[in-house]
Amino acid sequence: MTTLPPIRTGQARTAFGYVRPLADDVEIPFAIVEGAEPGPCLLVTAGVHGSEYCSIETALRLMKLEPEMLKGTLLVLPILNVQGFHKRSIYVMPQDGKNLNRMFPGDPEGTTSQRLAHWLTSSVYPLADAYIDLHGGDLDEGLAPFTIYPRACARSRALAEAFGLPVIVASGGAGYTLDSAFKLGIPGILPEVSGNGLWGEDTVGTMSAGVHRVMKHLGMIADAEPAPAEPMQVVTMWVPKAPVGGLWYPAKNLSEPVAEGEVVGEIRDVFGKVLASIRSEKAGFILYRLTSLAVNQDEALLGVGTALAE
Questions:
Q1: What domains are defined for the chain?
Q2: Can you give the pLDDT at residue 126?
Q3: Residue of 169, 174, 143, 166 lying closest to 156 (CA atoms)
Q4: What is the pLDDT of residues 197-245, one digit of tens each?
């Protein structure tokens, strides 16, 4: 099929299938879990980056929820970058070499990632009352768990707080899944759990519990595991890019504090010559970092979380 089936029929049901939204052979799996009682529609996507396996496994488990548990509808697209998933691609869609999470709101006449972004923006997001785009730290990325939300959207921040991770990142900018949904009036969040493509019962459990808390917040389920009793930090994130290619040597571990102007890593050549020293423009702490030894020019090196001035 080229379009998703109706998401609200008024009857408790589970529907599984594949949708082929583009003029090619890529089939995207989907699940619709509709409850016996009316309620909001929560859209959950994963696999925007095809090797972030914690997010994908979490989405696959959500597809098994019983309709009798729900009010409203759960719409799950567990692997959006299907070819990237099978090819173990880092960040990009193999069809065009572009990062899908930079292509929004997309272009119906563009390359594969641009057309997929357009389909999501024009045909999928309008179905939802709230949105969770699950991520899990790609094959070359270590991270401490955090949840991103569009800074200008109070309803999105409420979803991030409900999800329950200890760090919440207020984001700006365009080209992202959340920004595109927000411009349609749909609150959304992007949780990041795990890293380096790894997944296990602990990380999938953390992410699943967060989704359930959001569903409880929306009135879709009656109960959910409470979040850990620890204070939440709301931050912005500064992300330096590599000025040159070479070998990356980070100087800071995850969650370690950083002073303004402090060296957070070096890029060297194969003989040890320092090609670039990266100094932090902000004081804060390390949210994520590139874990591969190899780095190419313009790749993101790390993220520094700085307390949000409210």
A1: 13-217 (3.40.630.10), 238-307 (2.40.50.100)
A2: 97
A3: 169
A4: 999 999 999 999 999 999 999 999 999 999 988 889 999 999 999 999 9
Q: pLDDT by residue (tens digit) across 50-92?
A: 999 999 999 999 999 999 999 999 999 999 999 999 999 999 9
Which of these, 143, 146, 173, 293, lies nearest to 234 by C-alpha position? 146
* Closest CA relative to residue 218, chosen from 159, 291, 277: 159
* CA trace torsion 88, 179, 203, 284 (10° rounding): 110
- Per the CB < 8 A criterion, the answer to whether 175 and 103 are in contact is yes
The share of the chain scoring above pLDDT 70, in percent, equals 100
- For residue 246, give Cα distances in angstroms to 129, 143, 299, 304: 45, 22, 11, 21
Residues linked to residue 168 through DSSP beta bridges, in sequence order: 147, 234
CB atoms within 10 A of CB 127: 16
Give 253's Cβ-side CA count (13 Å radius): 1
CA end-to-end span of the chain, whole Å?
A: 47
Angle subtended by helix axes 154-163 and 201-217, to nearest 10:
130
Task: Identify whether the C-beta of residue 292 lies closer than 8 Å to the C-beta of residue 140.
Answer: yes
Taking CA atoms, 114 is separated from 87, 124, 276, in Å, by 20, 15, 34
* Residue in the block written with tokens 């959500």: 62
One-letter amino acid for residue 182 of the chain: F
Rg over CA atoms, the chain:
19
Q: What CA–CA distances, in Å, run from 187 to 94, 120, 121, 153, 158?
A: 29, 15, 13, 7, 9
| SS3 per-residue string spanning 48-99 | CCCCCHHHHHHHHHHCCCCHHHCEEEEEEECCCCHHHHHCCCCCEECCCCEE
